[in-house]
């Protein structure tokens, strides 16, 4: 007997569980299906972000940062600790506990909002009664029907051709978060978000880390001035980053992994390491969705084709998050989930891709919103730039972390903010002010004339805005 719902959401990652909750808030009878399992086989909603992505990586980044501070910087504060050690098992256990708290929190939110949760793999069966029949393959098989279906099945790590993930020697983000000890040597292929964050974790704990990047420039999506500043900091820390690399044969053996590559000078190199982390991007996850059963259109990459409103080619079927076009960001998925739920209710959901913030949680952190200076030049846009270094910020000095800067880019004629780019302490938090400003079409002058608390890191945002008009007060 099929169970009837108004809305079925397939996937309980950031896009899926948020879509389900918002739809329930709007009065719909909602089911959410997710197959992710914890170690005991129980439900673990939250998708890649909660289980093997955003949340656990931040937990390890925090632990490793504490370790590095204790080892290298406590003495600056007059704190004596003696020899500092790291219990990797306890660190991983703390990370796992935080993941479980988030899993349990989502299950609680489903209960609170009266969303019916099904633990298993959701897939299309057929079109039925003006809607769709969905199978749930879990401990027990169930059949659900609804007129509205939201697909939020996320993405999978992309492997190197011919080198599958074994999560022992060749690791995806999943395996990189589960290492039981500190490797002596590690290579990472891909100097993107995952590569830099995971590289930072294990470097701080004592691993000799080399990052191999195929692009000629370091972080080409980041404003060039900011990327250069970040690279200087990583170089100083001992995180070895090689750009312009062509990776060749990868061999896995009892001793670890051997990576053959050609460097930017065209020289053949071989790197022998204990562990290899591959972070060369992610692919949309439509495996097992049975999209062909209902004629759901996919593109050549396997992603679900949607329009600007996240509508698919099928009436009543929507898709959000990593499984569709656009940046693979958890917060982008959440905003699309809310927007789709509101569109189903006849409202006008809104997602502005131009003001999506980006963050890399290394130390220093890197954050930005809007266009980079190189994009503005390529587009022929006349602009003004203003920068302010954390070196001149009193709170940064007190923190003992003065690396980096804040940079504003504003239209040369109207002064509207076109982009804000940051590298430095806690810029993952500071970027929110820039996002709000850009959503309200603010000018750099607006930020320059707003009172910011003293002493605070946010004063650097105000000063960078003042710098657009060449009138900084503290530099």
TrEMBL record:
Cellular component per GO, a single term: cytoplasm
UniProt binding sites for NAD(+): 190-197, 213, 281
Cofactors required: FAD
Keywords: Cytoplasm, FAD, Flavoprotein, NAD, Nucleotide-binding, Oxidoreductase, Redox-active center
Comment on bound cofactor: Binds 1 FAD per subunit.
Residue ranges of domain Pyridine nucleotide-disulphide oxidoreductase dimerisation in the record: 357-465
Locations listed in the record: Cytoplasm
Pfam short name (any one): Pyr_redox_dim
EC number: 1.8.1.4
FAD/NAD(P)-binding domain sequence ranges: 5-337
Cystine residue pairs: 49-54
Ranges annotated as spanning the membrane: none
Domain of life: Bacteria
UniProt GO BP: 2-oxoglutarate metabolic process
Molecular function GO terms recorded: dihydrolipoyl dehydrogenase (NADH) activity; flavin adenine dinucleotide binding
Reactions catalysed according to its record: N(6)-[(R)-dihydrolipoyl]-L-lysyl-[protein] + NAD(+) = N(6)-[(R)-lipoyl]-L-lysyl-[protein] + NADH + H(+)
Similarity comment text for this entry: Belongs to the class-I pyridine nucleotide-disulfide oxidoreductase family.
Other information: The active site is a redox-active disulfide bond.
Protein name (Swiss-Prot/TrEMBL): Dihydrolipoyl dehydrogenase
Species, as recorded: Comamonas antarctica
């Amino acid at each position: 007997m099929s169970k009837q719902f108004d809305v079925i959401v397939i996937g309980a990652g950031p896009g899926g569980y948020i879509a389900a909750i918002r739809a329930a808030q709007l009065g719909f009878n909602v089911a959410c299906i997710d197959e992710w399992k914890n170690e005991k086989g129980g439900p673990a909603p939250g998708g890649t972000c909660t289980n093997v992505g955003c949340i656990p990586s931040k937990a390890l980044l925090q632990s490793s940062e504490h370790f590095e501070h204790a080892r290298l910087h406590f003495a600056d504060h007059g704190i004596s600790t003696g020899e500092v050690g790291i219990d990797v098992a306890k660190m991983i256990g703390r990370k796992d506990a935080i993941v479980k708290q988030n899993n349990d929190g989502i299950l609680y939110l489903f209960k609170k909002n009266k969303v019916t949760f099904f633990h298993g793999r959701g897939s299309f069966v057929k079109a039925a009664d003006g809607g769709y029949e969905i199978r749930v393959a879990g401990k027990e098989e169930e059949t659900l029907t609804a007129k509205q279906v939201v697909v939020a099945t996320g993405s999978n790590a992309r492997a190197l051709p011919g080198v599958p993930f074994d999560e022992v020697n060749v690791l995806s983000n999943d395996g990189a978060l589960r290492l039981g000890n500190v490797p002596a040597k590690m290579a990472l292929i891909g100097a993107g978000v995952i590569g830099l964050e995971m590289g930072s974790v294990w470097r701080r704990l004592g691993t000799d880390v080399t990052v191999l990047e195929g692009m000629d420039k370091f972080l080409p999506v980041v404003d060039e001035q900011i990327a250069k500043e970040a690279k200087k900091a990583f170089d100083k820390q001992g995180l070895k980053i090689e750009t312009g690399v062509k990776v060749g044969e990868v061999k896995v053996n009892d001793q670890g992994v051997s990576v053959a590559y050609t460097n930017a000078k065209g020289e053949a190199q071989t790197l022998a390491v204990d562990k290899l982390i591959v972070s060369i991007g992610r692919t949309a996850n439509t495996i097992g969705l049975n999209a062909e059963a209902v004629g759901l259109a996919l593109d050549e990459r396997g992603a679900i084709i949607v329009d600007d409103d996240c509508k698919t080619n099928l009436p009543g079927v929507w898709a959000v998050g990593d499984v569709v076009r656009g940046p693979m960001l958890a917060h982008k998925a959440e905003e699309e989930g809310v927007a789709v739920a509101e569109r189903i209710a006849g409202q006008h959901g809104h997602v502005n891709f131009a003001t999506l913030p980006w963050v890399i949680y290394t130390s220093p952190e890197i954050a930005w919103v809007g266009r980079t200076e190189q994009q503005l030049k390529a587009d022929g846009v006349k602009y003004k730039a203003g920068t302010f270094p954390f070196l001149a910020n009193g709170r940064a000095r007190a923190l003992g972390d003065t690396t980096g800067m804040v940079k504003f880019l504003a239209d040369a004629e109207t002064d509207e903010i076109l982009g804000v780019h940051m590298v430095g302490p806690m810029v993952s938090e500071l970027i929110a002010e820039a996002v709000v400003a850009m959503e309200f079409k603010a000018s750099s002058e607006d930020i320059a004339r707003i009172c910011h608390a003293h002493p605070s890191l946010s004063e650097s945002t105000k000063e960078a805005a003042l710098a657009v008009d060449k009138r900084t007060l503290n530099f």
